[in-house]
Fold this protein.
Amino acid sequence: MAQPSKTPVVFAPWEDETQKPIIQFKNVTKRFGNFTAIDNLSLDIFEREFFALLGPSGCGKTTIMRMLAGFETATEGTILLGGKDISPVPPNKRPVNMMFQSYALFPHLSVWDNIAFGLRRSSMPKDEIGARVDEMLRLTRMEKFAKRKPHQISGGQRQRVALARSLAKAPKLLLLDEPLGALDKKLRHDTQFELMDIQEKTGTTFVIVTHDQEEAMTVASRVAVMDHGKLIQVATPAAIYETPNSVYVADFIGEVNLIEGNAKKAGGDKYEVSWAEGQAALRGSCPREIADGTRVTYAIRPEKVAISADKPKDAANAIQGTVHDIAYLGNISTYHVMLPTGQVIKAQESNTRRLANRHFTWEDKVWLSFTDTAGVILTE
Amino acid sequence: MRRFSWFNATSLTLGFTFLYLPMLILIVYSFNGGRNVAIWAGFSTKWYGELFRDKAFLDAAWVTLRVGLMSSTLATILGTMAAYVIVRGGRFKGRTVMSGMLYAPIVMPEVITGLSLLLLFIAIGLDRGLVTIVLAHTTFTMCFVSVVVSSRLVTFDQSLEEAALDLGCTPWDAFKSVTLPIIAPAVISGWLLAFTLSLDDLVLASFVSGPSSTTLPIKIFSAVRLGVSPKINALSTIMIAIVAFGVITASLINKRSVTKRLRDEQEAAAS
Ligand SMILES: Nc1ncnc2c1ncn2[C@@H]1O[C@H](COP(=O)(O)OP(=O)(O)OP(=O)(O)O)[C@@H](O)[C@H]1O
Ligand SMILES: [Mg+2]
């Protein structure tokens, strides 16, 4: 019986040498006075990408967006859009629309007129404008509020209007600065899928800023983790999650247990990390070469740590500890296990059984175990 | 709320008496039936009737009105433009000096402004008349408009303009369809202020007016030199009414838009 041998087409233009990026940042630096907001940043974003910018407040996400939209000019370096330097192009001539973090809705216009604003300034015929606005209203579920002024609707509704307004013109490049932050979880999920759907249909390139890493993981083709105006890592959500390149990224994305120790080669890309007296070394992998004795951090995600009453026979890593705390989160529970060294390691278990008869309780002696491929060794 | 004390009551009464007693006397005597302005001879509106039959006064009123409308409109346009550049123009060389200079005419003695304008008009050979008064009033009231408009522009959210540009507006289109409608209350109250100032200006007008273009304040001033007639009282009362109306409306418009904005912001914050 022949297996269908269809290899799925993976969308990864950044791995393809022949692909031309739609946006290129070339050694871009942006200073406000003597404060450096963006520090020598180089970045390629490709057509049809859903590119997420992630980072702490004040790291320069909005500044990147504003440079793309044309409200700030780079102090040094060049930004190319479709291969052309965009610095001389004024904002109204760029095929770019931006959704502002502050929404920037026009207070003197109704919701309907806000959404129609950009369309009226395009070559779109009048009757099509109406249809397009209605479509946007439907998409963002704002049909009922079309006649209201921005100050007569709630914060989340305002955010949806701002989103609708930026989507209306269907630009080549859409910049969304925290587009969904004020929405409740369900509406946020729905809108995320709507955005992905729009992206699929229209082939628009999205650059999205978000504080919600789960959102970045859901929608993005690639994620850029930033800190202090620098890119720390740019990779697919899976790569960022599974193989973060630094402690900063590992810590920023999702929960992680970090254990410091000294590395020692164990063949291939495997290393052993001795982390405490009298404890077995932790085995993990690192794609980079590490010299023996280097100070490293062993990173392991809580959901990759198994918890058991008896020592598992063939686990690559096993540590004993006592249950210190249990956080019940509905579908999962997080056990905080204190090691003899005083360090607390988190282990996550999904709650397949009822709460009443869960295995472990406070002060239980337990074993934590994980494979040698689950743990990542970080040098930075 | 502080408690009301006798001291406060006395100072309030004294202050307001000082301010408004002269005007009150003028208004009361404009309804005096007798010819002598100092002796009350019963209530009558006959001086108002007589005023409206006096062609010289009517002509002066017509000149004043036209000057007021033209100069305040011109001053509003120029003043708004100046305010916009000062607040929005970014940091250009000499901005601080320029914004300071824009407000200098407010504190400049009017006599000096009037004299310098007169010299200018003579130098360029412009005959004194309606046009020169309009120009003089525009110069003088424009800075007041600037003050009112720029204080509104300072609190105007610039990202609104950016959003307009982002959606395809040219800078002028963005100003016209976003900025102007939002700052309109300030512009209107600036216009009213300019109109009122133009209406009651005597000093500038007497420097730059010609024989064919006498404004009401000049007319009143010269008439009074020949003796105060009750007709002047009537005319002055009308002018007080118009000026009061202008000033009160301007401040109401401004206040309403401010409270509305505050309310909107609070609603926005609460939701
Ligand atoms: N016009 C400006 N003048 C001076 N400093 C500025 C200006 N705009 C931004 N900055 C500074 O640049 C840095 C980056 O700002 P930016 O708005 O890009 O942050 P952000 O990553 O979007 O943060 P957040 O997540 O809070 O929105 C901040 O430290 C900010 O104070
Ligand atoms: Mg921001």
Observations:
- Chain A has two domains: 13-247, 255-378.
- The first helix of chain A runs from residue 61 to 69.
- The pocket of adenosine-5'-triphosphate (ligand 1) is lined by residues A 32, 35, 37, 55, 57-63, 101 (CB under 6 Å).
- Chain A touches chain B through 29 residues (CB under 8 Å).
